[in-house]
Amino acid sequence: MQPQLDRNLRLTLLSNMVLIRAFEDRISELAREQGRLPGMQITCHGQEAIAAGVVRAMIREDVIVTNHRSHGHMLARGVDPNTLMAEIMGKRDGLNRGKSGTLHLADPARNVLMTSTVVGAAPLLAMGAAFAQHYRNEQAATSVFFGDGAAAEGSVHEAMNMAAVWKLPVLFVCESNCWAGAQSHDEHCPIKRVADRAPGYDMPGVVVDGNDVEAVYIAAKRLLEQCRTGRGPAFLECLTYRMHGHGEIDEQHYVDKDELAAWAERDPIELYVKVLQTDGVLDSRDAVEKQAVQTVDAAVAFADASPYPPPEEALEHIYVHPIGQEG
Amino acid sequence: MTVKSFGQAVAEGLTLALEMDEGVFLAGEGIGTSIHVNPHLPTYQLLERFGSRRVRDTPVSEAAIAGLAVGASCMGLRPVVEIMYFPFFTLASDMIINHAAKLRYLSGGLSSFPLTVRIKSGMFAAGCQHSHYLEAWLAHVPGLKVVYPSNPADAKGLILSAVFDPDPVVIIEEMPLYWSIHDEVPEGDVRVALGKARVAREGQDATLAAYGGVVHVALKAAETLAKEGISLEVIDLRSLVPLDTASVLDSVRKTGRFVTLHDATRFCGFGAELVAMVAEQCHGELKAPPRRVAAPDIPVPFTPPQEEFYRPSADTVADTVRKLVGRS
C-alpha cells in the first residue's frame, strides 16, 4: 500500500501529465504538417508519469540534466510552454533563441541545467553538476534522465563509478522504455533490469512501474532525500514503453502491434484518472484537459508570431567574450 | 622575479588560482598522489597544501574527468582538470568537443563553461599511444580556446588567464619542458592575455611562427643563422585560439618570408592554417613561397633514434630558412 499523497499534489501530478500529453500531441500534429517544425521531433508519449513523478519529487535547488526526449521534464519543471514551443520551431523568442531546437534545451534559471543528445552523455554532465553541489555543501541533488538504450554507453558507467566513489548527490533515472532506436531491450541489454547494475556501483537500484506516477514520485522522493543527505548516488529504473517511436518520423514497423496495444491499456494518464476518480479526488478530467489545450494553443500562437532569428546571429553565443579573428 | 622551472611556474599559477578563488579545484589521475615524485611536476605537493577537497585524485576515467569539468563549470565552479597524456584526450573528447565547446552555443548564450583542461604532451620514449600532437584538432573546434606555452613566465601567466577565462580553455603543457627549461617568472598574479603572441627574437630576413617547446628549437636555429648573416624573427604564438593574426602578419609584411614549425605532423597541421592565412593576406608582399617545418606524417616512434628522427631539429629549421632566403 502506498501512503496517501496530498490532494493538491495528486492533482498537480495529473495536470503535469495532461499538459505534457497535450503538448506532445500537438508536436505530433505539427510534425506531420509540411515545413512546420524543422528537423526530427522526439516526444515522450507514454512516459509522462516519469517526468511528472520525478520532477515533483525535486526541491527548487535540485538540478535536472536531460536528453533528447526532454519536453516532459521541461514542462514538469515549469519551463514556459511559449518559449519552449518557439524554441522547437527554431524561432527568435525561443528559450535558446533558436540555437537548440527540440534537442538541446536548457533553462538554467529553472535549474534545467543542460541537455545532451549524445546518448549516454547526460549522466557525466549530471555527475559534474552534483560535484558542484557536493563541493559547496548544498542540500541539493541532481536528477539525470536517460534510457535503457543509453545504459550501453561507457559514459553512463564512468558517471556512476565516479559519483559512487565520491558519494555525489546524483539520482540516475533510467526510463526503460524497451527500445534503443529500432533495437529491443533484449537486443541491447543482456539483463532484464538495468537497475541490477546499481549494486555493482554500491548504490541502491530501485525498480518502479514507470506508468504509475505515484510510485515514481514516492521512490524518487525517498532516493533524492538520500542523495541530499550525503549518502551518495541512487539509481531509479522506471519501466515504461516508448509509444511514439524514436521520433515522429519513426513508423515503428518493427514493433509488435499487440505489445503496443497492451501498453496502451496501461496509459499512465488513464490509470491515474481512474485512481483519482475512485478516491473521489477528481470530479471531471475535462477542466484539466481543457486548461492544458488552452496552454498549448497559446504556446503555438506565441511561437507562430515570433520571427526566425536573423541568419547572422549564428555567429553569436560561441564565447562569452567573442574572439576577433581576421578572415 | 625568481628563476623557476616550467613545471614550478605552472604550479605557481595553479597555487595562486586556488588561493584567489574558492571555486577553483583541480582533478586528474595521480595529480595528488602520483607514482612520479618530482618537484618540477605542476601539481607537486598541492594535495598536501590544499587538501583533497580542492585537489582531487580521480579514477582512471577520462570521460568522467572531462564530464566533471563540464558539469561543475556550468554550476559556476572553475574546474582545472588534467588529461595525463595527449592521446588520452580521445577518451575525453566527447565531453570537450560536443559539450564544453557547444553547450553555450546550444543554450543561446544562457550557459557558460569556465573550465580549464591541462593536457600533458611531449615525447618520452613511450610511443604513439602516449605521445601525439593533436593541437590542430582542438584549434578546429569553435568554442574552445587553445593555449600552448613555451617558457615558465608564459606558462604561469597563461594558466592564470585560462583558469579565470569565462570559456573553456585547453592548455597544452609539454612535459619535457617541466624540468628542462628554467627562466625568470614574475611574482604574483601576473597574467598573459590569451591571443597575444610574443616576439621571441627580432629579425629582418624571415619570420618563423612556432609554439611550445619548438620555440627553443627555432631560437637555436636563429642563433646559427645569425652567424651566417641571416636574421630570423621568431614569433611565439602562445595561443592558437584566439590567434594573434596581427603579430604574425605584421612580421611577415616586414620580412617578406614565412616559415612555420611544430612537433605535430605536417598534413593538416596548424602550420597549414598559418600558411593559408599568410598566403591570403600577404600574397603580394612575399618574396618566396612560405614553408612548413613539421614532423613526418607518421605516428610518434618509440625507439630513441626514430623518436629523434621524428622531431623537427634546429638543423632542419636552419636549412629551410636558408632555402627560403636563397642561401642554400
* First-last Cα distance of chain B: 42 Å
Helix count of chain A equals 11
- The assigned CATH architecture of chain A is 3-Layer(aba) Sandwich
Range of strand content of chain B: 15-25%
Which CATH top level class of chain A fits? Alpha Beta
Beta-strand portion of chain A reads 5-15%
CATH superfamily of chain A: Thiamin diphosphate (ThDP)-binding fold, Pyr/PP domains
CATH topology-level name of the largest domain in chain B? Rossmann fold
Number of domains of chain B: 2
CATH superfamily of the largest domain in chain B: Thiamin diphosphate (ThDP)-binding fold, Pyr/PP domains
Give the biggest sheet of chain B: 7 strands, mixed
Helix content of chain A: 40-55%
Low-confidence residue ranges of chain B: none
Mean pLDDT of chain B: 97
What is the fold-level CATH name, i.e. the topology of chain A? Answer: Rossmann fold
Please give the number of β-strands of chain B. 14
Quickly count the helices of chain B: 13
Short summary:
The complex is a heterodimer of chains A (327) and B (328). Chain A is of the alpha/beta class. Chain A has helices at 7-31, 48-56, 71-76, 81-88, 122-135, 154-165, 185-188, 213-228, 257-264, 268-278, 286-305; strands at residues 63-66, 112-115, 142-147, 170-176, 179-180, 183-184, 205-209, 234-239.
Distinctive features:
heterodimer; A: 327 residues; alpha/beta; Rossmann fold; 6-stranded parallel sheet; 11 helices; 11% strand; B: 328 residues; 2 domains; 7-stranded mixed sheet; 13 helices
Question: Can you describe this structure?
Answer:
The complex is a heterodimer of chains A (327) and B (328). Chain A has helices at residues 7-31, 48-56, 71-76, 81-88, 122-135, 154-165, 185-188, 213-228, 257-264, 268-278, 286-305, and strands at 63-66, 112-115, 142-147, 170-176, 179-180, 183-184, 205-209, 234-239. The longest helix of chain A is centred in the first third of the chain and has 25 residues, at 7-31. Chain A has 327 residues and is α/β, with parallel strands linked by helices. In chain A, 41% of the residues lie in helices and 11% in strands. In chain B, β6 (145-147), α7 and β7 (169-174) form a beta-alpha-beta unit. Chain B is built from 13 helices and 14 strands. Chain B has helices spanning 6-20, 46-50, 62-74, 89-100, 103-106, 135-139, 152-163, 175-180, 214-227, 245-255, 270-282, 304-310, 314-324, and strands at residues 2-5, 24-28, 55-57, 78-83, 116-121, 145-147, 169-174, 182-185, 198-201, 206-210, 232-236, 239-241, 258-265, 291-295. In chain B, 39% of the residues lie in helices and 20% in strands. Chain B has 328 residues and is of the alpha/beta class. Classes of the chains: A alpha/beta (327), B alpha/beta (328). The interface between A and B is large, with 48 and 48 residues.
